[in-house]
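Weekly structure sync, notes
Attendees: PL (lead), two postdocs, one rotation student
Agenda item 3: pending single-chain targets
PL asked that the sequence for the first pending target be pasted directly into the notes so everyone works from the same version. It is reproduced below exactly as submitted, 587 residues in total.
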Amino acid sequence: MNSTSRRRSLRGLVRKFVPGVAMFARYERAWLKADLGAGLSVAAIALPVGIAYSDLAGVPAVIGMYSAIFPLLAYALFGSSRQLMTGPDAATCIIVAAGLGPLAGGDPEKYLSLMVVLALVTGLIYIVAGLARLGFIANFLSQPILTGYLNGIALIIIAGQLKKLLGYSGEAEEFFPRMAELVTRLEESHLPTLALGVGFLALLIILRRWTPRLPAALIVVIVGIVAVAKFGLEQSGVAVLGEVPAGLPSLHVSGFELSAFNRLLGDATGIALVSFTSGVLTAKSFARRNRYEVDANQELIAFGACNIASGLAQGFPVTGAASRTAVNDSVGGKTQLVGVIAAGTMLLVLLFLTGPLGSVPTVALAAVIMVSAVGLFDFAELRNLYEVSHRELILSLLTTIGVLTMGVLPGVLLAVILSLGWLLTVVSRPHDAVLGRVKGHKGFHSLDDFPEASTYPGLVIYRFDANLVFFNADYFRGRVRKAIAEASDPVEWVLLDASSVSVMDITALQKLDELRQELSAQGIVLATARVKPRLATFFNRKWSAKRAGVHAAVRFETLKSAVRAFQQRDKPEDPEPSDAPPDTTDN
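Predicted structure, written out during the meeting:
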């Protein structure tokens, strides 16, 4: 390979795995104004949100700033979305706290070291999944179940912020005990905190509703700092954030007990599954809006890089952030440079302006978190499910209830189990049909769709609308028996239209042979038509060829040729049934 070919190959690898570099190489000056405005707007949202979400994760505020800054730089290099912003996410922070709390046993230093390892392990899982091209896992959780899971997370977040917003003390850790605590302890609320909390909530709602382009979270934080300084609220008992250390994080990985690794690996897998699913959905939705495509496998690698960057900076796991992405898109951000500008802006604050952050009232952060959690709760999707599919609405609500009663981490497992259960239910009992001929229509059609369709006396044409594998083979056999039992005339042939079967395993093949023998004992021929040649690739080639030869007499290329063979089974030409239309098709 000559030097030119090597350079081209290297450029190809860079474009494939580090798309941000290729974007910066062809960056147009005309984009800079839009990217600069969008970057400053994103920073105005991301900074207070990162500080607020650090409380959800159970870590100091500066950790939230690290987690908001450095992943943006990593995503700008490795991400395939031009609009997606990464950083702290409410659901991810809740999972982090739920997983690390029991492992740390109340030791803050141990908690922080476990958190760093969790972020790094999550990043490695992402990268391995991306290199293995497992981007399809974005579709692993169905939308209704993902909605139910995130709705449960939203309610847990809201319940957890109530005592900070209203100013009463509470010890409950679970959702329903926290709601009961609200009723019993509301009268103990600290009135200045309560007044501030209600005021901040109202201000956030007004700003988000009437001036959505303004950084509402930043405005509330600034108002809170000014109120604390002007009215001496800290002396009145209003809790404030406290000192936020300035400067860059030290890049190191603390030691931890290897016995905790298995638990961390499970937590990291859950975080990767849920956060990637929600993050890539955000990336895809904004890419579709702006008429380009994102690569799900590259997004896995990008999310991995973001989490490794966060972990090395002593931050917590991160993912795609829908609210900050929406801000970027609404302001008109053009490229991944928006993330670099936002990160740079927040980095300047971290280096030179941390002093005022110490006066941020925690009730202001609670208000920001609660409003964000309300945005996480998807009322529109629940209403849509109510109108479209009551069954999937129930699955979504069951997921929410499971998260509220079982907890966040078991809720991830429940979401996966419900998704698998729903998938297996659909696939194991697929649609099927007995076929007939319809006057004025070509081909063969379902009797359920066309009750007036004509059939051939003694012949049942049956179609199974799914792949035939171990978990639906018994259902298939039962449905064939049912079709025979419901036939109006004694059945001589069952003709299986195999056009919908693209995959078959050995269990299904054995069940099919058993059915053939069972029907043969009753004097019924089991014939097949429209069998896809690729089915033979699932089995040994020589064996498949031998089997095809054995069953050649009852295997047909088309339904038409199979019906003709049935009609001529006793004599050369057997007329069509009087009420059936002429056979003019080739299927």
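Discussion points:
- The longest helix spans residues 261-289.
- The first strand starts at residue 86 and ends at 87.
Action: rotation student to compare against the earlier draft before next sync.
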